[in-house]
Amino acid sequence: MTEETKTLFFTLLVQKGWKDYEVFQRHYREAARRLADAKGPQSLATAQLEKRQFNRWCNQGLSRPPRREARRILAELFPGIPVERLLGPAAVPAPVARPAECHPEDPFERAEDVVMEAAHESARFMTRAEATNVGPHAMEQLAADIRRIVRTYPNRPVGPLFQEVRELRNYIFRLLEGKQPPAYARDLYLAAGVTCGVLANASFDLGRYAAAETQARAAFLCGELAGHNGLRSWIRGLQALIAYWDGRPGEAVSLAEAGSSFMPEGGTAHIRLSAMKARALGQLGRAGDAVAALRQADDFREAAVDDDLPGGMMAFPPEKQLFYASSTYLWLGGQQHLDEAERNAQEAVAMFSAAPEGQRRLGEEALARMDLAIARLGKDQVDGAAEQVHHVLSTNARRHTESVTRRLGHFSRRLSEHQAATSPIAIGLREAITAQQQHLPALLPGDAS
Questions:
Q1: Least confident among 41-50, 231-240, 400-409
Q2: Is the backbone of residue 440 left (phi > 0), alpha (psi -120 to 50) or beta?
Q3: Which residue has the higher pLDDT, 271 or 88?
Q4: Fewest CB within a 10 Å sphere: which of 119, 175, 180, 293?
């Protein structure tokens, strides 16, 4: 291709770094999808550009003007430049000879050339600055997908949902690798943080703590880039949760306290941090500090406003706060604390089970029932404990998580040491727990990355 046959189109591709066919094809398809979403028709979203046609556009090889859909896409990619000019020669025709009185070396003429060149440079900047790989319709759909996922997560099997969230996260990552206005970039980082946070929670539910911590770190970074305190504090709470279940209560307390430095824009993330801190302090046997943290969570609850995160699994409703309190009191032990544990767990179970069938937070309800079962076992109410465990076995067969399975094993060991261990009801209950744990399928085949 000689310099004389190059088009303005080719020159602009070089400036943008799009001169390779595969690179331009990607931007061409993205522009087609934006136009289809914004103005239609939807068939435009599948528009393709053959390499032979691309070469013609670069090399003034057109025998006829481009089709209407191609003209629309080119206008989207190169706004303000007519297609005929875009696919015409890159070089500006030589100027007509000037009259003698207007000498080409005249200072005024040279200044005018410099001014016009500066204007052209600004125009080229505007063309690049306005380019975006995502529009309002795509952002609206992305927000809707995230809301649906976080609201259905507590009621769906974790394995299949994990794959769906992973695909959505990867789509957001691809968008972030492109170009978009700063406001959209912030929203995309927030969306990436939420999806990484969901994947961290799912990895935790699948018993993959190392993977969960990696996802949480990525989510926190996205929260930093988005400048969103609600997400940052929620992720610190999730990291505290992982540490708590991994037998690191001191680290869980530190993470909860670190999260408290990010006062969320609204919602319940700070309530969750205080309740999580109380549970870890209970595990450490620090009764006074644990009860103080529970009271702080109550104070935050009274002042809470609507959650600005997408809600669902990322919200911390009162029933979940009650079950965190029951866990705290179980750790502290003693008759008075056992009574408090039973009262809080019983109230939490009643609230969880009152939710509509498709909106029940099954895993959390199961854990609250396990707290109630352990409290009743501690008060020698084996029949009452068995009732709760049978509920949990039924739920865990449909939507099992590693946390619930661990709590069932913990209960079974306590029951084997209880004075009623040889009673028919205790023997039957332990056998039911053992049978389920031996026959549960793998939580997720493959690597939960």
A1: 41-50
A2: beta
A3: 271
A4: 119
| Exposed / middle / buried, residue 114 (Cβ in 10 Å: 0-12, 13-18, 19+) | exposed
Residue 337 CB contacts under 8 Å (≥ 6 apart), including other chains: 287, 329, 330
Quote the CA–CA distance of 423 and 215 in Å, as a whole number: 45
Q: Residue 275 has what pLDDT?
A: 98
Side chain identity, residue 59: N
pLDDT at 351 over 70: yes
Q: What is the pLDDT of residues 102-152, one digit of tens each?
A: 444 455 545 556 666 666 567 566 655 556 778 888 899 999 999 999 999
Q: Rounded distance, CA 362 to CA 370, Å?
A: 12
For residue 201, how many C-alpha atoms fall within 13 Å in the half-sphere facing its CB?
23
In one-letter notation, the amino acid at residue 156 is R
DSSP state of 422: T
Taking the C-alpha atoms of residue 80 and residue 434, their distance in angstroms, rounded to an integer, is: 71
Number of H helices, E strands in the chain: 20, 0
DSSP 8-state assignment for residue 385: H
Q: For the residues 31-48, what does the mean pLDDT come to?
A: 85
Cis peptide before 441 (omega within 30 of 0): no
Q: How many CB atoms lie within 10 A of CB 259?
A: 27
Handedness of CA 276, 282, 284, 288 (dihedral sign): positive
Nearest residue to 396 (alpha-carbon basis) of 371, 425, 424, 364: 364
| Residues 196/238, Cβ–Cβ less than 8 Å | no
Give me 234's structure tokens. 């929620």
Give CA–CA dist 228/205, Å, rounded: 25
- Integer Cα distance of 241 and 195 in angstroms: 18
Query: Which structure tokens are listed for 381?
Result: 């109410």
**Residue 402 near residue 366, CB atoms below 8 Å:** no
Rg value, the chain, Cα:
31
